[in-house]
Each structure stands twice: as structure tokens, then as C-alpha cells.
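ok here's the first one, seq then C-alpha cells
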Amino acid sequence: MEDLPPGFLSLGRGPRAPAFAFPTPPPLLDEIVEEILLRVPPADPALLLRAAAVCRRWAGLVTDAGFRRRYTARHRTPPMLGYIGGLVDNGDSARFFPTGAFRPRLADRRGYRAHDARAGRVLLNRIAPASESASESALAVWDPVTADRWDLPLLLRPQQVRSWNAAVLPCSRPGPGPGPGPAPFRVAFVGLDADEMFAHVYSSQRGAWGEAEATGDLPNDVPGDRIDETMAGAHAGDAVYFALAGGTGVVRFHLGARSLTVVPLPDRPYPARIVLRAMEGGGLGFAEVDRQSTLRIWAMDNAGQWAVTRAVELCTQLPAQVSSVYYVVASADAAGVLFLCTDHGLYTYDLQSRQSIKVWSNRFNDIFPFEGFYTPVLPRALTVEGPSAGA
């Protein structure tokens, strides 16, 4: 067969067989490529990373801040990419444990313990002696996707704080953040001193704590004189909730009204550890497991009344080797997944699919599910076309 120029196809086997030219199709418009990539399911972030590896043009599209905003707006509900835990035998670091394909560049934050995680950010609390470069910081916010960390200034109070809790939150009005990455953030801090309850809010856009936004007295008819610092808070609607020690009530910090109130929890005939969670529609709820390994989901209505919305006999849902469920460890609210401490290790339980997965042994100090969107973060040299670089 005679040699044909590139782009020609010969039909037949003889020397006189006709040849047809098939021109190379033009590349897809960036708008079309982006519309395709926006439909990549967020539960499988490796697909976006593979798309970014196709060429520099695609890498530039996937890593653009505008794409990240549109991707988040389209899918709305972030998947659970992993969880932050502190192992009992390694309590001087917060470690990221992936539950899927996503792997952070930096899995450990030594010298810190995780305190909260929400909206793609992790709130860290320093437990090691502060270095000279961070001597004025006790709390920090960490982004496992970008590996960025922001040290928060110390919150100064006229009196000693007896107990406190804090939560990292997305900003209600997006704007320029403290650096590259997702949207800016806030940290809501609620504490008790000798006289009152108080609340402050840190804004990454201002880079400072605000003045006391709310104060209030702890009612005498609510037992417990401190906030439970070991239990993660919940962000439901426009309020942040933190449990009081003893499990009798929660402190509600309404961000819009700047008010602090105590919400009593319902009377239950069995003592059980609770995990606060945001319910669908913006209401407050909590999960607990009783002595018979029955999971109960409670929800509070607009009138402040509590009711059980779901009850699950966990021993009939979990693998046969699990004979007892001790308590709920944590809740991934958006994903609808609970972490359960059992006699056979740590399990996740999906409230919708009812599937359970063993993720580790029961050797954790604390666990905070990490829910967020992953889009690749690549060096600029890999995403920008050079004068002689091809797509």
C-alpha cells in the first residue's frame, strides 16, 4: 500500500483504493469542557484530578476559583471526604483519615488536637508548647485540601474563662479570604466565666475577634455549670449550639439576633451520650444510643418541643460480629452518616442507605467528620500555558 499523508484513511487493499481525508476535529470550547466537568460527582474527587492531568488548559479550568464556586453551587451538599481523629496512643496530633479517594498533602497536624470541622475547614486547638512564631495563638483553622493554616489571635477576656467551646463556620457574605482556597470563614466562640455566658466571633475577612456579641446569665434551673468542651457543636439555621455538661441542656448562640439562651433537652429514662446535629430544614436535633443499642434521633420543632423522629435497632443493622453499640461518636450532618463506638470497633452508619462500614478500632480521643468539596490545587506552572507549551 502506498504511503498516505497523516489524516487520510485508505479503504480497500489494492493500490488504487480510494483515500479519504478526516481532518482533526477542533478542540472543545472551554465552556463545554467546564459544563462537562461541573457534572463530575463530588463523592469521587479523583475524577477531577484526572481531568486536570489531561492538559494544561483543562488544569487551568479545574483549578480556577470561579470553577470551584460554580462546582460548589451546583452540588450544594458536600460529601464526606474523611474524618479528623486523635489516636489515644498519639494524642499530640490531629490526623486526617480518608474515607475515599481524596488524600491530603499533609495528613497530620502535630501539636494540635481537632476541635471542630465544618464546610471544608478544621478548627485546631494547640496542645503543645507554643513556638515563638505562634506564641500569640491557641486556635488555628486548617484546610486539608490546600494545606493552608491560619493562626487565630488570642481572645482576651477581663476574667478567667471557666469553660468554652467553639465552631468553625462559613461566612454568610462571601468576600476576599485570608489566602487562596475556598470561601472565608468565621469562628464562633462561646464561654462561661464567673459572672456570665458570652460569645465572640472571629472573621477571617477582618483577621480579628469581634467585641462580645452576646452575653447572658445561666439559668438557675438548668443543672451544670460549664460547657462540655469535648462535644462538637452544631450549626443549625442561623444559630450555633453547644452542649452543657451533664447532658441537660444546650447553649444557643443566635448569630443574627446576637443572643445567648439555654435550651433544655428532653427528659429521657436512660443516661446516654448525645451528639448534636443539624436537621434537614435548619432545625436542631441530636442522636443517642440507649442501653439496648437502639439509636434514637431527636428533633426540636419551632415551638421548642422535642420528639423522636427515628429509632433504629442497630444490632440488626450492623454486621453479626457487633453485639453491642456503646454510643454515638460523631455526626456528618450533610452526608447523613453517624460514627458509632461498638464492641467490635468504630463503624460508620449511613442513615439513608443503612449501610455500615468498620473504619477503625476504638482508640480515638475524638472524631470530627470532614465534609467538603475537593477541586485540585496545582502549582501555577502546571496550569498556565507557556509561549511554546501545547495543550
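and now the second one, same deal
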Amino acid sequence: MEHAESLEGFCKKLPKIELHAHLNGSIRMSTIQELWDRKADRSGDLPFLEAQKTKDFQSAFSMFSVIYQLVQGLDVIDRITREVIEDFAKENVIYVELRTTLKAYDDKTKLDYLDVVLKAMRETAALHNIEVNLLVSINRAESLENAMEAVELAVQRKDQGVVGIDLCGNPVCGKFSELRPALEKARREGFKLTLHAAEIVNYGETQEILDFSPERLGHAVFMTDDLKSQLFSKKIPVEICITSNIKSQSCDGPLGHHFGEFYRKSHPIILCTDDMGVFCTSVSQEFSIVGDTFQLGREELYDLSLSSIDCSFASEASKETFRRRMRESRTSLGLENK
């Protein structure tokens, strides 16, 4: 028990990088509860709190329908953006790439939404010694027209913190091939791309995504040996979300997670939360899980965090700042200086 507590303490002090964090899914449960209680016709506990403990893949997405019903209005978006960044900073995360699908509320446009998120990011990051950038998400359930609009709005704010485009959403909806023109446009505009892939068994689409060669992949759970071989050959970094995969029953517990295979292959991987509010986790907890499960020492955990920097969409100057902060942390972490 002493060792586990010591490992948890180390993982919390370790400077970390978060590259797969959905804004709405990272919302505090206390904030969700407050929003729920504000509704005139609702009281008591949230109906999905019990479901957080044991649920399948599709029920995880049903939780988002509740969140989207409650998170209405730019004042709420402003609040949760600030809270999410504060929560990451408390975990000693030094760089975050938040991602969100742009939404319109009443007389407020999607560009208004984007501007509120970017302003909250800038102001909160400045208060907490953390750098934050944004990935504009394309929901695969939406039309190509909406996807094109998302890219166009991202272009308008490219110099204000938008660094990439994400393809996300329920993988049983829509097709990568139908939205590919928007992603190609994003690439022409100079954006880096991260695509959710292989969250379910869909080997044909996973092959299409690998052929497209995005800068990163999210999850990459269900892959044949041939697909994995191509992934390893291309060295496309993978955003690993262990707790998310376990709670959505995409794998059989930590030992059955593909992190182990990818790590042994020295494939570029980044430990991420996915939705730290929905899945009740933190980046520190994700590091603690792999340390315990795969018997990684503190130097190995440090190196895992350090290597994540190379996979980010941050500027080269920012990456060097993150590396310096990592080096400066070694003494306080109890690691020998290299």
C-alpha cells in the first residue's frame, strides 16, 4: 500500500502532457450536478452516476446526450472551460490540447462559441502556468457541410490557439470517407489532424484512416495484426485512454489493454484521459495505472511523459519549454540528473 501511495504521489508531481481531452466530457461532476439541480423539473441524483461504474460502449455515448442537454449557453461553456483547465493544472499538467465540437445557442453562432472557449483558455492558462491549445472537432455523425464549416471557422482563429482538427463522435455513425474532403481541406490549410480510429471493429475504415496518415490517432483499440504492423511502420502516435477503454468495455481490464503491446514495440504513445469527468479519472491516475499494471519504474514513467511532447501540436518553441520544465522537475521527483 505504501508503494502504491508513493507511486500515486510521484505521478501527480510528474509534469504531464494531455493530448486527448474532450471539453464537455471533462466537465466536473459537481458542475453537472449543479446544472441538473437548476432544472425546475429535476431533482435528486443524476440518473447516470451509477452507470459510470459499469457501462458498455454505447451507454458511454448516451451520457453525453445528458451533458449536452445541460450544457446550454455560452456562460456555461465559459465556466466549464475554465474549470477543466484549472483541474488539469492541479494535476501538474503543463500542456493541454482541448477539443470540442462547435455549437450554436439561440442567437449565438458557432464562431461565438469558439471565441468564448479561446478567451477562457487564454485567461485561465495565464493564471495557472499551463499552455492550452484547441482542436476543433468534426462529429462524424454530422454532414460534410457542417464539417467544412468547422474547418472554415478554425481557419479564422488559426492564429489564436486553434492548432488542429479532430474527427470524433459515435463510431457507429457516419463514415470517414464521407468527411474526408473536410479533413483534406484542413490539411491544405496547414492544420495537423488527429482522428478517432478503431474504437469498434471496422477494419476497412481503419485501413482508410491509416492510408490517410493523420498526425495522431485516438484509441486504436480494435486492429488486426496487419493493421498494427502498418501503424508501427508509419509510427503514427496513438492517444491511449486506458480508463475510458476499460469503462466502456473495449478491453478486458488494464492487463488486457493494448498499451502493453504498443509500449513494448516502442511505438509513440501518449497517456490521456479522454473524458476525465465522465470516466472519473485524471492524467496522474492514468500514469499510476500503467506504472502498477506494467511494472514501469519512475524513470520509465518520466520518459513516457517526456516523449509525449514530441507528439503534440504545440510550436517548437513551446515544446522546448516543456522539455526544460521536465528537466527541471527531476530533482523534486527524486530522479538523478542526466
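notes on #2: Residues 83 and 137 are 20 Å apart (CA to CA). Strands lie at 16-22, 93-101, 131-139, 162-168, 192-197, 216-219, 238-240, 269-271.
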